[in-house]
Design a protein that fits this description.
The protein contains eleven helices and no strands. It is mostly helical.
Length: 286
Amino acid sequence: MNPFWIALIAVIVVPIIGGLLAGIDRKITARLQGRWGPPIVQPFFDFFKLLGKSRIATSRMQFVWIYGYLVFMIACLVFLVLKLDILLLVFLLGFAGVSFALGGFSCKSPYSHFGANRELLQMLSYEPVLLLMALGIYAQNGSFMISEIFNRSEPLLASLWPIFIALLVILTIKLRKSPFDISTSHHAHQELVKGIMTEYSGPYYALIQLTEWYEIVLLLGIIALFWANPLWVGILIALAAFILELFIDNIAARMTAGWMVRFSWAIGLVLCVLNIAYLYLMKGVS
């Protein structure tokens, strides 16, 4: 199929999948807390309700950055579905996170600034692990191209399982789940104020939700790359990781930002560095 049509279909279909995953998140969370919970399609009702609200602007630059957040996230998705360079995908994901944080700094609210500072701390925790993940894939395949991952007969998980564990650790941070829901939380069981999102409302808050739906599917897609052939196995692994994150979110208390950085670096960076060093050592021996 023409790459343009593949990208277009992904841009249209992925938010639907992401919205359904957000609905499943709410449902499972409610059941774990002894509640019935909203219907799985409730995120879509909320999304269209937000689109119908008034446009209230506290800062023009805030909305420029939030559109940047959405555009960079869609660009990451296009890189994934077209099987392009995973290192550039990681850089684009970093630009998306920076845009989101700058949106928080663009208004005068101290709550928003506080959340933006925490968002930057989260980036400090997960970005080095994502970069080392890309380097680990290069060390194994000799290429940053995602298409080369699909050409492998052996899954990446067999040789990159330490990096996979590190990726699961930072998945908790990227999905903003406990114990690492530092800058904001998707559920009221941790904090009622949503920090960096405090000054967003109406259609602009809907844009953030839409971007998060893209991000959920993108992150699970990266998880699925570790068993890309056959892909359905990778998708099952990604869904299992998603359910695991929901359980962790409901049984863990929120930690401090400093503890998050130390934990992700102590576990994630060490696992990635050891994995990459082992790969190069084995290649040197052979």
